[in-house]
Amino acid sequence: MYSEPIKIAVLAMGGEGGGVLADWIVDLGEENGWFAQTTSVPGVAQRTGATIYYVELFPGADQPDARVPVLAQSPMPGDVDIVLASELMEAGRAVQRGFVTPDRTTLIGSTHRVYAIAEKSHLGDGRVDSNALQRQIRRAARRLITFDMARTAERNGSVVSAVLFGALSGAGVLPFNRAQFEATIERGGVGVKASLAAFADAFEQARLTQSESSRPTVRAREGGRPAADAKPALPDPAAVAPRHPEVARLVEHARGYPAEIQPIVIEGIRRCVDYQDPAYGRLYLDRLDAQRAAPGGQDAEMMREVARHLALWMTYEDTIRVADLKIRGSRFERVRGEVRSTDGQVLSISEYMHPRIEEICETLPAGLGRWLSRPHAVHRLVARLTRDGRVVTTSSLGGFFLLYALAWWGRWRRVTLRYAVETARIEAWLGRLRAAAAIDPRLALEAAKCQTLVRGYSDTHERGLRNYEIIMTVLDRHAKALAPAILRELRNAALADEHGRVLRDALARRGFPLDGLFAGAERSCP
């Protein structure tokens, strides 16, 4: 006989069915003679915070003259029996909040990651180490059941909530049998077939722990998949066979590079051709060949970094690129797949677009763009008209053709102001690398990696470019006396804070004059 309620916390993000899962648990209890209560505390947004659903179950509701118990409305640290987490970071948050304790808590969660806003917006690699998260939750829980629930849900055409419900049943931590769990899903009446399939799949995966008592973590049956943070492999150069004759010649030229660099060079060609045309891919190789012939060009690590960062810089994000990506058929198919749209449903896709006056100027031919960028009546008028942005429905004929026209302008990208500006920046960067390599190849390697600061678009691009220009000014002024480790320190400082505060502190600590550096960077950013 239970003297205390069973206390269950569900941590789920928006759209994952956390509320449905909590309602299923309540219905499961009430239909089988238990008192049940659920409450929820909503998070801030889809990925900046999850909703916490709290359920308490207490027996005796089917007993004559049973007294209704007083149940708690929120989970308390150290006082939770079962935690259900829809994603690995949410499991980590549950541990951080103290909901998971080694003396009582069963933690059931998914090992897949949906990266947080702070992780995705970080200038460098801001991802939390998934392996470290798993080690932490393994130490914190009395019993741990984890596997890739997102993949299980996708395989069965369902959502994570049904998978969590199946894992909860398979874990055997509630006094209800499988048939009672499945009857709960059937009473819901919505998506029953897919939910039952996902439930059964998860039930079997959770049951694996019954015969693996020394290994409480359940591993997905697919076995051998890469870790959550593993990067996708680049294509095998031997398997690349372009149909376009000019692209085929470019790929054949790339095979002259060392084997460890070939995949990156071929990927760089692919990106540049997709971004513009085969001639742009040829320009990428010409620049790379010139760098290879310069001092330090025979160093494999140096050329690998140059090949990677040059491709990224040459395929910079501009308004033309954004428009092109948003109207591609593959994107419409991907969105349809994500929302599970069927042929009989109408799908509407709305894009919030807010190009600044700077982006508009950069999209125009160079001369016209420079004229519009200067302060005068037309500049002020355009800035005022574009101040609030607009919503473009790309699934409508008008919205699609608006972006189609902008993407079509890409064939004349080479005459735009942005192309002229980025070309000058790329050539200046490559020149710096050659000059630095003549002094110290290790310094040139660190300078090559500084390109990672130049990324994104709008304000993010502007701030990253400013920090990059500051570091390049230091390199220009102190190349002969600058240690590679100092340049690496400055780059890491710039990646730590997009507003430049950490970089300022690092510069001051090293004795570099701040006013002159920041003023110089402002002048070098057109």
From TrEMBL:
<keyword id="KW-1133">Transmembrane helix</keyword>
<dbReference type="GO" id="GO:0043805">
    <property type="term" value="F:indolepyruvate ferredoxin oxidoreductase activity"/>
</dbReference>
<dbReference type="InterPro" id="IPR019752">
    <property type="entry name" value="Pyrv/ketoisovalerate_OxRed_cat"/>
</dbReference>
<feature type="domain" description="Pyruvate/ketoisovalerate oxidoreductase catalytic">
    <location>
        <begin position="14"/>
        <end position="203"/>
    </location>
</feature>
<dbReference type="InterPro" id="IPR002869">
    <property type="entry name" value="Pyrv_flavodox_OxRed_cen"/>
</dbReference>
<keyword id="KW-0560">Oxidoreductase</keyword>
<dbReference type="Pfam" id="PF01558">
    <property type="entry name" value="POR"/>
</dbReference>
<feature type="compositionally biased region" description="Low complexity">
    <location>
        <begin position="226"/>
        <end position="241"/>
    </location>
</feature>
<keyword id="KW-0812">Transmembrane</keyword>
<dbReference type="Pfam" id="PF20169">
    <property type="entry name" value="DUF6537"/>
</dbReference>
<keyword id="KW-0670">Pyruvate</keyword>
<feature type="domain" description="DUF6537">
    <location>
        <begin position="262"/>
        <end position="472"/>
    </location>
</feature>
<protein>
    <submittedName>
        <fullName>Indolepyruvate ferredoxin oxidoreductase beta subunit</fullName>
        <ecNumber>1.2.7.8</ecNumber>
    </submittedName>
</protein>
<dbReference type="InterPro" id="IPR046667">
    <property type="entry name" value="DUF6537"/>
</dbReference>
<feature type="transmembrane region" description="Helical">
    <location>
        <begin position="391"/>
        <end position="409"/>
    </location>
</feature>
<keyword id="KW-0472">Membrane</keyword>
<feature type="region of interest" description="Disordered">
    <location>
        <begin position="210"/>
        <end position="241"/>
    </location>
</feature>
